[in-house]
Amino acid sequence: MADSPRATGTQTLARGLRALQLVSTAGDGLSIQEVAQELDVHRSIASRLLSTLADFHLVTRGGDGRYRTGTGLAALAAGIHATLRATAEPVLHELAAGLGATISLLVIEGSQAVALAVVEPPGASYRLSFKTGSRHPLGRGSAGVALLAAQSPAPGEAANVTEARERGFAATFGEVEPGAYGVAVPIAVDGLPAACLNLITSRAEIAEGAAPTLITAAERLRRDLGRGRRRPRPPLDIAL
Fewer CB near the last or first residue (10 Å), C or N of the chain? Predict the structure, then answer.
């Protein structure tokens, strides 16, 4: 029996999305032949997929014939990031005030962890912080580990990533900022980039008691983001 038009369309959409994913994660773009090999399709099919993505400015073809991400993808990402920030910022402020530590929201961008929003504790005489837009390699620091844990298990992944996925949080010391404790909780929502809530502090007692509160906050964010809308939230029960 021949495939139905709906099944054929679904397969084409899946291939197009996979091609976009491949191009967006390639450091120096991909050629048509490379995309064809990755998708296990004929070169002509890969060419049509990439041409369609280019029509919508999601990818662009350079003078070297390689496809790289286009401005349309950046616009989509900006909209997604804005939704993440808007939903998370009230929670970040609650956590920073309640835990007395700097709280941030980070997402995966290629092979790096990128800070979308950073909130410092109000009235603190001493605080650790970093700027929105700061980035560091995945797998490094609590946020880098948590972001990998927010994704599906990968063959050969580091033991600390598997552990973070199983217990619901990652904890590190001095991996990104010397003398700083980090605690991060992964946030995975279908259709959104992997994200995490991250706490940094110089005080061991804050780091040691923060995980349950961060996990509760992350669960709330998952529900809100999954619904696609923000709802009034009860205050967090923060206890150290």
Answer: N
Q: Are residues 42 and 161 in the same domain?
A: no
Counting the structural domains of the chain, the total is: 2
If we measure between CA atoms, which residue out of 26, 85, 90, 19 comes closest to residue 58? 19
Same domain for 182 and 165: yes
CA 229 to chain centre: 19
Rounded to two decimals, what is the model's pTM? 0.64
Mean pLDDT by 10 residues, the chain (240 residues): 60 86 79 93 94 88 86 66 84 93 88 86 70 81 93 89 95 88 91 87 94 95 72 48
- Please tell me whether residues 84 and 55 are part of one structural domain: no
Mapping DSSP onto H, E and C, the string for the chain reads CCCCHHHHHHHHHHHHHHHHHHHHHCCCCECHHHHHHHHCCCHHHHHHHHHHHHHCCCEEECCCCCEEECHHHHHHHHHHHHHHHHHHHHHHHHHHHHHCCEEEEEEEECCEEEEEEEECCCCCCCCCCCCCCCEEECCCHHHHHHHHHCCCCCCCCCHHHHHHHHHCCEEEECCCCCCCEEEEEEECCCCCCCEEEEEEECCHHHHHHHHHHHHHHHHHHHHHHHHCCCCCCCCCCCCC
